[in-house]
Model the fold of this input.
Amino acid sequence: MDVYAKTVLGDIQTLKATGNKMKQINVLITPEGEITITPTGFKGTTCNEATRNLERALGTVTEDKETSELYERQEQRQDAKY
Amino acid sequence: MSHVAQMEIDILDLDALATAAKRLGMELVKNQVKYKWYGHHVGDYPVPEGFTPQDLGMCLHAIRIPGDDKAYEIGVVKRRDGKPGYQLMWDFWKGGFGLMDKIGETGGLLKQAYGVQVAKKQMLRDGYRVTETKDKQGNILLNFQE
Done:
């Protein structure tokens, strides 16, 4: 397991253990200069706001995948309206 | 985790590029308008978009290996593909006589060092703390916490 996977796994375990939502942004940069940005612990779309300046400073976003956590939270908000 | 962004680095910050070069044992020399290369284009590879063979060897700034007169150098030029920022130009003939040992086959190590510098600079400005680690594959992980 590489250091990135270990760190993300460690983050998840810490969150489960403490119940806290620790806001973190992981940036992985390969020796080829490719970048992956992974925010954790942000509510809803606030992660986009948190990484906006960073993405602008680094260059061009080539792919941006929303994860299940975001969808789950949006669904919860939808449910709350009814 | 709510989104994962993949990015391509654009060279926008000269100061960060200078720090990145230093990290790799090189130096950015501002206003050096020529960079060392083979000397003429032999036509075996296309020149980058927006450039002509006559443009090769000319630059706004250059990156060199201090004390190494044999190694080729990197030219820092304005991009001509309509995007902002700079393009890095170098001659990879015979590995640039040591240049590519420093920056990697495609210049990736210099881009990596630049990305590290820019990310740290921006996130520290935004109030985050940073931890840097490197794995066996050479990936650098920056962990930022509020």
User: Anything to note?
Assistant: Strands of chain B lie at 3-9, 27-30, 61-64, 74-78, 86-89, 129-134, 140-145. The radius of gyration of chain B is 16 Å. The first helix of chain B runs from residue 14 to 23.
